[in-house]
Amino acid sequence: MGSQYKGTDIDFPIRVSISPQPSKPPAPDLHRYWRSNPDEGYLERYWPDEHNHDAWITTIRRLVARHFPDFGDARIRYFAKGTFNRLYSLTIPGRDPSYLFRVSIPVEPFFKTESEVATMEYVRRHTSMPVPRVIAFSSSDENELGYEWMLMEMMPGEPVRKVWDAMPAAARVRFFAELAAHVKQLVALRFSKFGSIYFGDVADLVIPRQVFPKYPPAGPSNNPADVIVDKDIGPGGRFALGRIVSQEFFFDKRVYYPGSRGPFQSTRELIDMRVELLGKRIRDLSHIEGEAWYCENDRELAHNKDRVYGLFEQLKALVPRLVPHDNGPEDVGILWHDDLSEHNLLVDPITFKLTAVVDWECVSIIPAYETYDAVPAFLSDRDWRPTPLVHLARGIPPNDEFIAADKQRRAAEMGPARRAYHRIVGPLYDTSSPETHQRVRNKQGLAKQLEIASFQRRPWWTAAWLAENGFCEDKAAGKVDEKGVNGRA
């Protein structure tokens, strides 16, 4: 493969699934892929057992060689394990490039693999951003491994976290300026709905029937005349815009809950569904140790359920006040990689140039305001989270002072790179209107509460946000007793 196929008419990526279809509803035993995090007590994804790598390598070799005979003598090694995935490297002697074979646990069967592969191909075709090329994939688990898989080129470089300390200040600025040039192309792509990208040949499987007949709709009226909306999307295009693949919609038990997954016509529809799924989740607690889906966080939510439910109803009541039914300029659809972290940005360790942007799973089209000006997670300080509920229950004090101090440190360290990045990417929408500015502030605050790592794990932070913004009468609602939650040690 690789150079052998250059100049041929092979259309990568190749879907090798038995048939392109959601093979079956989510299995009833998906709880075996989740466990309680011992430090923070929330449900985390994990591989349920230690697989025999030698046996897997034999199966992978046989599976890949069936479609690509040249891989029959490939050198295959265990490479790494990620949040949802297990990876193996494949090298054919005397030939470049190397490849990665990625196996995924079924957190969102069919849709996560299909949308990720299509999204990477869409970005490859319509931007200069360096992303891995997918050679082949299976969005079905009906194979020898019993899991969905993907074969892709291995990209050069090291994660920026490994070389950050060795990068001179000027190299850091140049690195983020280079990334910004690519991101500017990405955010220039505009979309008429919020959802995920798929290949057109599965459109009828990822777009609900009540949406499909109206597809594609007219572009938003707030876009300039020279902006193309839904480029290469819909009838006549290679791609389709379908149901969203996002953690707020499938994380832990959410994958089982009925309700719309989009694509959504308005921000209000998107937010309403996130709120509905959050409400179902906090009332569907596994708080008894030993039962399926048990986690320590659920136990604490159950212990404080009256207060938690009250806070949720306050949050839910805010939606009509903060999110109008009509989209504003800040609601334009943007395809956004929300995990441009120090792990997913690869850099040449000698030249410090950007070599790849990886990990495109769960990348979806969201309202522009939720991208926070399209700033990468690594360049921002938004990754810091207030103390989780379980820590407070254990008597661990809030980390507010630590967060504030670290934000100051990062502002000094990242300041020049942030300015260079902002200067290149520029604004995503017009915020000159005070009304728009206030809407963005309100919507960003609300969106933050609806993230997986927010209300469900840190409800008292939501209480503080409600109080600080005058959204509730109880100004003490956000305060936590120094002894812990409700006085518990």
Tell me about this structure.
This protein folds into two domains: about 1-155, Phosphorylase Kinase, domain 1 (2-Layer Sandwich); about 165-485, no CATH class. The chain is about 35% helix and about 15% strand. The chain has 13 helices and 16 strands. It has helices spanning about 55-65, 110-125, 160-165, 170-190, 205, 245-250, 265-280, 295-305, 305-320, 390-395, 400-425, 435-450, 460-470, and strands spanning about 15, 35, 45, 75-80, 85-90, 100-105, 135-140, 150-155, 160, 190, 195-200, 240, 335, 345, 355, 365. It has a six-stranded mixed β-sheet, sandwiched between helices.
TL;DR?
The protein is built from 13 helices and 16 strands. By secondary structure, the protein is of the alpha+beta class.
SSE diagram, text form:
Elements (H helix, E strand, L loop, with lengths): L13 E2 L18 E3 L6 E3 L7 H15 L7 E7 L3 E7 L7 E6 L6 H16 L7 E5 L9 E6 L4 E2 H4 L5 H20 L1 E2 L4 E4 L3 H4 L32 E4 L4 H4 L16 H16 L13 H8 L1 H18 L10 E4 L8 E3 L6 E4 L6 E4 L21 H5 L6 H26 L8 H16 L9 H10 L21
Dominant shape: globular
Give the N-to-C terminal Cα separation: 60 Å
Low-confidence stretches: 1-8, 212-221, 475-489
Would you report the number of β strands? 16
The percentage helix is 25-40%
| Total count of helical runs of at least 4 residues | 13
Provide the structure class.
Answer: alpha+beta
Sketch the topology as an H/E string, one letter per element: EEEHEEEHEEEHHEEHEHHHHEEEEHHHH
Domain count: 2
Q: Per DSSP, what share of the residues sits in E-state strands of 2 or more residues?
A: 5-15%
Query: Biggest sheet, strands in spatial order?
Result: 1-7-8-6-5-4
Question: Rg to the nearest angstrom?
Answer: 23 Å
Mean pLDDT level: 88
Largest sheet: 6 strands, mixed
